[in-house]
What does this fold into?
Amino acid sequence: MQSGAELSSTLDRVAEGLTRCQRVLFITGAGLSADSGLPTYRGVGGLYEGMATAEGMSIETVLSGSMFQRRPELTWKYLRQVEQTCRAASFNSGHRMIAQLERKLEKVVVLTQNVDGFHRAAGSSQVIDIHGDLRDLCCTSCSRARRVASYAGLPALPRCPCGGLERPQVVLFGESLPEAKMSALLAELSRGFDMVISVGTSGVFPYIRLPMIRAKVYGWPSVDINPISNPMTAYARDHLPLRASEACEALWQRLERRS
It folds into this structure.
């Protein structure tokens, strides 16, 4: 465990490094949105990890692509619960700091596992929401897309004007990642980064660990922000054992003093 002096020194070093950066990648997970009051989770919303639903099935089963094909009303039922929880919250100081950093650096890219849309709401413009966004809907028949402010007022099974069933543009369990978003991530990684910062994720998925592995291989400075050591910590040059928003606030204060 780092002492107070060691932690302060690490924060100073990371902040000083950021002042010399032009391109920075943030990898964010449930730990960041947890500071907005959302439960930590995995997968799509994943609010119910390890729990059975009222129907006696696991959340992975009801929020799967195959279940949506068979019983879309059941999948929509639990997607609504996830969206309602997200609707009751908003972005926090960690999301805001990442967005504000765009004004200081040439490029700030965000790779997020979260489906709550908080990064864009906070003002980030370069967001790769690899698992999608709950409020982006798409017709399963004609592919017509639309964005909704919330699910309030939507019918039990939302329909497109063409009559096709709509679904959120999120990656359900058992589905492949969107090729366009994965390509966007790989393109950014090919250009390289001056620093990679993991915030509130343990890197369960290999495509989330990939940027940290690249950072270690190519010698890019890297930071893991997480209260406890996790798989991402092993790849990071520095570890900040703090809550996501707490660490972001501390870094921002140091950056402001240096500007």
About this structure: Residues 42-48 have pLDDT under 50 and may be disordered. Residues 152 and 186 are 36 Å apart (CA to CA). The beta strands are 23-28, 107-112, 127-129, 132-139, 145-147, 166-170, 195-199, 222-225, 238-240.
